Each structure stands twice: as structure tokens, then as C-alpha cells.
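> @MW can you paste both from yesterday?
MW: sure, first one:
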Amino acid sequence: MWLRPEEVLLKNALKLWVPQKSSGYFVLQRRRGHGDGGGRFTGRLVGALDAVLDSNARVAPFRILLQVPGSPVYSAIACGELLNGSEVYWAIAAGATLEEINQHWEWLEQNLLHTLSVFDNKEDIVSFVKGKVKALIAEETRSKVAEQEEDPEKFREALVKFEARFNFPEAEKLITYYSCCCWKGKVPRQGWLYLSINHLCFYSFFLGKELKLLVPWVDVQKLERTSNVFMTDIIRITTSSKERDFSMFLNIDEAFRIMEQLADVTLRRLLDNEIFELDPGLQDPTQITKRDLEARAQSEFFRAFFRLPGKEKLHEVADCSLWTPFSRCHTAGRMYTSDSYICFASKESGCCNVLIPLRE
């Protein structure tokens, strides 16, 4: 899978990774403990830690890094040396299998390598690659949503387990579910996170011990993305009595967005006044679906991004390109249509945004 590019400090990180191949701008690495026979203590230790975690939550065994040639950190990565400095690199892809990561590597070689050579400075290279990867992530996300809706069999199996484990009334509708870890102090408990209309639920059965957590959305006082000593990105749920930390390797953005929507819908239903009026499609809780929540989140993003009135409803979103005279090229982005506006936002953040009132 493609990863949203972020600067990461390269301080002692190479102890856990082995270089497999490199090109002028990219490095493919394998995590120790995967495919090396466990000949060294570090490899055995890393492999054991990864084996404890579920395959959807653990660190992917393969990854691709972006590093501009010419800097000392690039040479050290390519040679597999260990650095003690605080240089940075960009992780742009990860894979559970060698076949998956090689597909990403081949795409980079075929679509980016010949283009990057025309840039004169490192900042332009990094900006260009980050923009391409973010566009790929957007396409990948839309494909995953479509696949999930077209194949309901896995959801049906999860629903049966959810009903058996928590014994809710039939009116308690399951919206979606994720594989994740719930942290108890310094110890992660691998299990399943279930998001329903009225509750956040977690179930784990590990080493003979069963753990069930039920958090009503009405009790949630704070919902945030944060970090702890072991994980750089976790979801923290705060109630009047406890804090719960959840971490996952995949789908953390989607999970957090759905949590926000469910908590917000619950709050609006409780207040039930003109200011916090529910959307018509969310009036009946038993009819709410994951698609409804995603559409609602997209509309809220659209209104906030273009600073439009709260009653402005988003109708369609389409990928397109806009001729931008200042750069003398077509800029890739998305067109949004609503009741009163046509809007455009470039895929590269901050490059070009356009808002056209239909009355004009």
C-alpha cells in the first residue's frame, strides 16, 4: 500500500531494516526477522514482536523510502550502514509481501524515475513525489470502499460475531469493524474494534484471556489522534472515568473519521434543536450506513475547505484537470458541485483552488 509521505528521523532505524534494492531516488528495504532465517538475535526479536501482532496491525515487512541522491544519508541507506545522526527520509510505500512491494517498485520505475531527472533541486523532487503518492492514495481508498460494498460476505461474518459477543438488541446496528490493538498501559491487546450506532466495542481473546470493552458514544468526552511511547499514531477515547488507546496499521484515517461521525450524530440527536438539526438521511439511526457517514464527512469537508454556508449540500465529485495560466499547464485535481457553486481543488495541497458561484 502507498503511505502518506512523512519526514521520519533516521536515528538507529536501520538496525531493524535490511536494504534489498536501490535506484537513483528510492530504496526498498526488508524488516529483519522476515525471510532471513532468524540467524541473528535482532532478527529473531523483531520477528517475534511482529508475530505477536495481527497481520493487519503489525509493521509491514517491506517498505520503500524516498531519498534524494547526493546527501550522506542516501549513501548510507543504499550501503546498509547504520547512522547515528538525525537525518530524515520519507517512507512512501509498505507491503505485506515481496510481490506487493515489487508492484509498487515497478510503478515507481516506470512512471517516476525518468521524470525526476529533470528537476534541479531536492525540494522539487520531494514535492513532486509526495503529490503523486497522495493522488495514488486517494485512488486506492476509493477502490477499497467499492470492494467492501460489493462483497458483503465478510461484513456478514463480522456481524454474526458482533451479535454473539455483545448480545445487543436487534436495533443496535453495526456500521463497520477493524482489526486493531487496545493498549493497557504498555501492553497491547490484539483484537477487533466494532463501531455501531450507539457504542464503540472492542473484543480480544489472547492467551486464554477474554477482553470486552463497551463505550457508549454518549459517554465520549474527547476523541483525538495522538501518540504514546510505543506508537506514533493512536486513537484515544476519553470518558469521564478512563482513557482508551487504540492503534492499527491500516485504515486509521477511515476509522477515526467514522468515530467522529458517530459521536457527532449521537450528540446532535441528544441536543435535538434547530442549531444541531440532524441531516434528513440520519434521522433514523437504524437506517444509517457507513456510506451515509462517509458522504456526510465529505460534505462537511467540502463546506469547511471552501468556506461555504452550512446548508450547502455537496452533490458530485469528479476528477479533472484545470488549465492554470500562471503555470502554463493543466493542474490535476477535483471538481465539486453543490446547490450554488462549482469548486475546484488541486491534488497538490495549496497549488490552486477555485470557487465559482452558479449565479455568475
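MW: second:
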Amino acid sequence: MTSVLAVLVGLAVVGLGVRANAADDTYLIGTGRYDVTGPAAEVEMMGYAMPTQITHGIHFRQWSRAFIIADSSDTSRVVFVNVDICMGTQILKIQVVEKLRSLYGDLYTNDNVLISGIHTHSGPAGYFQYLLFELMSLGFVKESLDAIVGGVVASIQEAHESRQPGKLYLNSGLLAGANINRSPAAYVRNPKEERMKYMSVGNDTDHEMVVLKMVGTEGNDIGMIDWFAVHCTSMNNTNSLISGDNKGHASFLMESAMSPPGTLPGHAKFVAAFAQSNEGDVSPNTKGPHCLDTGKPCDLVHSTCNGRVSSIIEQ
């Protein structure tokens, strides 16, 4: 299976004129990480659209992880930022690029800065500029946006200052048992050619994981970006603690594994981003949706429990 993500990575790097040195396949690679945790109390959460899901504390902090890849002559570059938020927004991108312009001139622009949210449903809302997305947060929350913008810019600054010669390695493989289709009844209505894309692994979801590995020319591990299709909804819609959910936790575990024992979160030299992919109707809750009151599986065709939708543990 040829991964769409692998193609996108290639387009992002090569399409923007960022090419390795022809002689030794080297790039200039920088990584950075910074806290983007927003208001931890009395702010609606973004994702489930549940008015009662309001922040009441912190499960673990949210982070921005930035990766700069430049050609060996340092004349062109691309920035990929993976953020522990539900999704990137237009106003977020605008403000980040404006702040970068004040710091670096025309070095970082709308064209070479890519911001990707991990799609956690357990982060503060209110950082959008459109009404539909602001309804659940009861309006714009400046504290939410400021925390994210400041953290994203700071992570890019760290990446800019840490650039070093390195190599890129791209690999992919199938990972089973980590995601399921949360709308199987709807999925079977797709054309056969669409469904056959994933039947090779006996399922109705994309199981391909893509990893971009970054290694310094001295053999030192710099960082990695992982793409895998699964919703960041291991924490259900009753959760009120700010959390990076499964992808944020995976980043923490990977960075810890690559660091000396006792390294505090956010202080690892190795930066590991578990980025979002084509998660669509893909859930991490591999046992399937079940009813809150009985614990039994819900009706998959009608998404109900005893004829009601209010008793389902959300995926």
C-alpha cells in the first residue's frame, strides 16, 4: 500500500525546494518543544461539543513540537509543527506567522509553515475565529489562543536555534489492533474499490503507520514524526482534565524512552511527534461503543442504547 502520508511528506519537503545535498544526502534539521497548555479551569473543551465538558484541571500538559528541515545550503526550508490541540485554526496560523516575521523577516511564511493538531478532544476551546466553533466555548477565549500561539512560536524558535546537519529516513508498516471503524454500517456503503484498500489487513480502517526519522550526521538521534489514523478520544466526553490523550501520551513515552532516566516532561533532547492522519471515523476504543447504563454494546446501525443516544460512551 502506498501511503498518502508518505507522498505528502515528499511534497512538503521536495515541493518547497528543500532538497538534500546531492553528495551526501544531508539536510539541516532542527527540533523544538514548548508548552501550549491553556486555561485549566472553567473553559469549554473542544471536540465533543458537550456543554458540560468544562476544564477542571490537568491530566498532563499540552505541547507544541516543531521540526525545521532545510537544504544543506540553508537557502530554503519547511517547518512542521505538531500541536496537542484539537486542530489548527486560521487565526492561529496568521498570528504565528506574524510573530515569526517580526523575529526572522521573510524566513518563515504562510507557504513553508505547516501547523497540525493531534485532534485531542480534551483541550480548551475558544481559539477559533468562526462562530460555529465558538458556540461550545460561549465565545472567543483569548487566553486559549495566546497560550497556543506563544508556545508554537517558542517551539519554532528552539528548532531554529538547534539546526544541525542530519539525514532523513522514511519508513512505513501495518499496525493492527490499535484502531477500529466507529461507523461500520456507514462504511459498507462506500464503493467496493474504496473498501478494498484496507481489506488486505482484514478491516475497514487504514492500519498504515508512517515514520519520518531524523538522525544527525554524528549518529545522534534528533527526533521523529509518526503519522497514524486514530482519533485522540481515549479520554471520553465525561473527562474534564486537559490532556494530549493517546498521541500526546505516546510522544511523552517515546521521548522518555530516548532520554536518560529521570528526564522531566518537556526536557528531553529527542523530540517525538505523533501526528494526526486520516482519522475520520477511526476510533482508538477497540472494544467498540457501549452503553453507559448497561455496559453492553450499543446498536451500531442506529447509534443508540435502548433507543436513546444519550447513554452512549462517546468515541
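> thanks! The radius of gyration is 20 Å.
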